[in-house]
Write a structure and sequence with these properties.
globular; 1 helix; 7-stranded parallel sheet; mainly beta; 196 residues; 45% strand
């Protein structure tokens, strides 16, 4: 358990957790060598803002956090995959996998995924997948590959446009934050049973 700020940096080698790690302050994880990974999926409970940084075209970052999650500005050399274990997930700074055209996946499960002002998402040609039962977009989402925005629960209703009914709702301004250039935009999924 760490009661304050927690910083981990490696000049060589990946970062991997092997047990429960509780952090109440902000945390930062950085791999400096190309293609080294960050893997935090063994019981992380980081309640402060999390910053991630990897280098190289296959320097991936995978985070499974067991409490409400806030992501600060982070640049990932490869793919980014963050799961908040059905807790809220907020993006407070720019997230980018664009340099390597890496995939960008954020999963709040049955909870809410929020991007705040300044919380831009960018992936180049890499696919973006945003999963949650409620969503609030506060800044731009940019890419030239595919993007999928989908409820976690199949029966969750989807509302598209200002005033439209649905727990998973994107108003007109939020839809406009999906910048032009995506190859394919998918809202919902084939297994969904909720009304649109």
């Amino acid at each position: 358990t760490v009661g304050g700020t927690y910083t981990v940096e490696t000049n060589a080698g990946s970062i991997t957790d092997s047990g429960v790690l509780t952090i109440t302050g902000a945390s930062s994880f950085t791999t400096s060598t190309a293609n080294d990974d960050i893997t935090l999926n063994s019981g992380l409970a980081a309640s402060g803002a999390i910053t991630l940084s990897t280098a190289g075209l296959t320097g991936n970052a995978t985070v499974v956090n067991t409490v409400a999650t806030t992501l600060a500005a982070s640049t990932i050399g490869g793919n980014l995959d963050v799961n908040s274990s059905n807790n809220s997930l907020a993006v407070s700074g720019a997230l980018s996998t664009a340099a390597a055209n890496g995939t960008l996946a954020l999963n709040a499960g049955t909870n809410t995924l929020t991007t705040n002002a300044g919380g831009t998402l960018a992936s180049g040609t890499g696919a973006i997948t945003l999963t949650s039962d409620a969503i609030a977009l506060g800044d731009t989402v940019t890419g030239t590959g595919n993007i999928t925005l989908t409820p976690s629960t199949a029966s969750t209703g989807i509302g598209l446009g200002t005033g439209a009914a649905g727990a998973y709702s994107l108003n007109t301004a939020e839809i406009a934050l999906l910048t032009n250039g995506f190859t394919l935009i998918t809202i919902g999924n084939a297994a969904g049973t909720g009304a649109i």
